[in-house]
Amino acid sequence: MVHLERHKGYFVFLSILILSLIFSSLAMAQSSHRKPAKPQGPKTKNVILFVGDGMGAAAREAIRLSTVGTSGDLEMNKMPYTGSIHTSSTSVVTDSAAAATAFASGVKTNNGYVGVTPNGKSVRTVLEAAHDAGKSTGLVTTSQITDATPAAFGAHVMNRSQQSDIANQYLTKSHVDVLLGGGEDFWYPAGHAGAYADHPAEDPSEASKGTRGNLVKKAQRYGYNYVTNQKDLMKAKGQKLLGLFANEEMFQQKPEGQGDLYDPTVPLPVMTKKAIDTLSDNKKGFFLMVEEEAVDEMAHANNAKLAIKSGQQLDKSVKIAKDFAKKHPDTLVLVLADHECGGLTVEAVDDGDESGDGVSKEDGPFPVAHSNQSFTVDWTTGGHSAVDVPLTAIGKNADLFQGTYENTHIHDALLKAMRIK
Q: Which of 332, 285, 331, 325 has its CA nearest to residue 132?
């Protein structure tokens, strides 16, 4: 009897064990059909994107040699990740509007188009996506704040010259929080000068020419604190800020020695720091695009001296962003160009000049910093070229920008870095 009870207990135990194995197998089979959990990687909270307009690899090198010499490096180069960007639009040689649209919206479009596809369809920008995710957004430039590069991040038009329409879209559609740059003339209607007088001596052609009424007053109604000089910029409070510091560009692109000037009333590093300080109050983070336009404009005029000078200001601005990123490690800092301009080459000082004696003649010699050496800059064109341009990156998810890729990759990688769809 005892022997029978032992066998009975053994059979019960064995039955329970078999049933447990069956149920376990069924559970595993069921779970194998479920979609795997999406990995939650590190999220980029803040993005600071620098665009050296027209700043190809040779321009970076000329800036480096003039600033720190052969044994030093620029702040924009002292970054752990590097990339190389193909620059073509729907044309082999891009303009700034199409190039910035590729960065901002991830589509190749026609030259002159801003924030739209080749058939004119608006495409959401990375700045608008950041805004929709609750982040603060900003645009800073030494050009008109409504010029092609900043416009591509916050507007949608089929002609980059529609600068008043672009300004209006910043206020009413993309809701950019911080706008700092030049271009006052497109915010006021003709005959209504703003803080900067119409027809100034340095460029009599500049005058108010807005087509959408008084957009400065409209901005103020939308809650923007409006400033027109560095003193007021430094004192400005609040989350929404509009600063217009010139009639058009914050410099003068003229033939060398004939009125050419790079001396912004508010330097790019000052605008950059104020934008970061203002936007960083948002606990959800921010997206900021900072452009130095004069590298491109001066290269169009084959003016190496001022292209280098403006590039040095860009590098000082990059240092400010990197210092912020050190204190806020969830920040991503990128430095890139939309295209190359001028076919610039760094050459030795000699008696030969392959480019001739016209506007494209050699510039220089320029001293190499911390040495007794010098170099010249030679030019092949007064326009853009189709060569690849360098990118450098540091901070959260900077590794997404390694390699060689199309300019549209910038948009895709930025959304991936911020985990925004």
A: 285
Beta strand 241-244 with 225-227 is parallel
Task: Provide the token pair at 154.
Answer: 């916050």
Active-site choice (96, 164, 360, 385)? 96
Question: Rounded to whole angstroms, how far apart are CA atoms 256 and 253?
Answer: 9
Question: pLDDT category, 25, cuts 50, 70, 90?
Answer: very low
Tokens representing 162 are 């529609």
- Cα separation, 311 vs 68, whole angstroms: 13
Count of domains for the chain:
1
CA distance readout (Å), 34 to 21, 30, 31, 146: 20, 7, 5, 49
Q: Which ranges constitute the DSSP H helices of 291-338?
A: 294-300, 304-327
23 in a structural domain: no
Torsion, CA 205, CA 254, CA 274, CA 129, rounded to 10: 80
In this structure, what CATH number is given to the domain that contains residue 56?
3.40.720.10
Give CA–CA dist 336/106, Å, rounded: 16
Per-residue tokens: 93: 């040689």
Residues 249-305: pLDDT tens digits? 999 998 888 899 999 999 999 999 999 999 999 999 999 999 999 999 999 999 999
**Does 3 fall in a domain?**
no
Which residue range is the domain that position 251 belongs to? 46-199+206-383+394-418
**How far is Cα 92 from Cα 85, in angstroms, rounded to an integer?**
14
Distance CA 262, CA 253 (A): 8
24 catalytically annotated = no
Average of per-residue pLDDT across 313-336: 98
Residue 38 forms part of a structural domain: no
Q: Is residue 28 part of a domain?
A: no
